[in-house]
Design goal:
alpha+beta; Pnp Oxidase, Chain A; six-stranded antiparallel β-barrel; 28% strand; disordered C terminus; Split_barrel_FMN-bd; Pyridox_Oxase-rel
Length: 269
């Protein structure tokens, strides 16, 4: 753990402008949001296209040179994809290789609750969101590529890498590419708490007696595992079942606790 809480610099393109008290630039907060998000959205600008491209990708933050680094340390983002996908091909282009890499923006978000107020304009979400800005390059070192593949696999289900057939064979290694994103900066934005309404609505006794207000907690639930058609293992492995139960309990607890945790004092999204 770093001696002090590290933060990303608040650049003009990364700074939280609206409801700034919801902004957070600490590495640990941002990395936790990213690493707990099952799907990341990666944006980049393809050449000869008037529109940016956005891809859903699987990724995880870590450090190949310092595997024991925690979420509060400086980390890289590893992204997993098919060898001939557009983003992978762009990182091989001469322009990308001559520069720091392909500029990318990566977004992660969690919905934690539906905040229902007296009026539609005061409705909101409880949420955690993070955005990272950096440059992506292809991982060419075999040891680092295997590190990233294991890191990403275990982010789906902890210990899954060692409980499956590994290492990948030559064909699997050839068909899979891994990007490493060196992070320039990032920011998070978080809302927790209950509904907030305008004073005039709060003073309307008839409205208070008529409209239900509160929060509907939202969280992902991992369902009962269903065996595949050729599965020959009698019981669900302990590492999988214990993780499923812990993940479900943790997600439910966070969503419910977030209702009573006031981070923002202003109204709005």
């Amino acid at each position: 753990m770093p001696l002090r809480e590290l933060q990303y610099p608040a650049e003009p393109y990364s700074r939280v402008n609206r409801l700034r008290d919801r902004g957070d630039y600490t590495l640990e907060t941002i990395h936790q949001i990213v690493n707990s998000c099952p799907m990341l959205h990666v944006s980049f600008q393809p050449p000869n296209s008037p529109f940016p491209a956005v891809l859903p990708m699987i990724g995880q933050m870590g450090s190949f040179t310092r595997p024991s680094a925690d979420l509060g340390d400086v980390l890289d983002l590893y992204l997993h994809g098919y060898v001939s996908s557009r983003i992978m091909n762009l990182t091989r282009s001469p322009n990308s290789q001559e520069q720091e890499g392909l500029p990318v923006t990566v977004a992660a978000s969690h919905l934690d609750g539906l905040v229902l107020a007296l009026t539609p304009n005061s409705h909101s979400y409880n949420y955690r969101s993070a955005v990272l800005f950096g440059h992506a390059t292809l991982v060419t070192d075999t040891a680092e590529k295997l590190y990233a593949m294991e890191l990403i696999t275990n982010s789906v289900v902890p210990n899954r890498w060692s409980n499956s057939r590994v290492p990948p064979n030559a064909a699997e290694m050839q068909s899979t590419s891994v990007l490493k994103v060196k992070i320039n900066t990032g920011s998070a934005k978080i809302r927790t708490g209950g509904p907030h309404d305008e004073r005039g609505d709060m003073e309307d006794e008839g409205l208070l007696d008529w409209v239900w207000t509160g929060v509907v907690p939202v969280y992902t639930v991992m369902g009962e595992p269903i065996a595949g058609g050729y599965n020959r293992v009698g019981e669900v492995p302990g590492y999988l079942e214990s993780w499923r139960q812990e993940a479900n309990q943790g997600a439910e607890e966070y969503a419910k606790e977030a209702v009573g945790r006031e981070v923002a004092k202003k109204t709005g999204e």
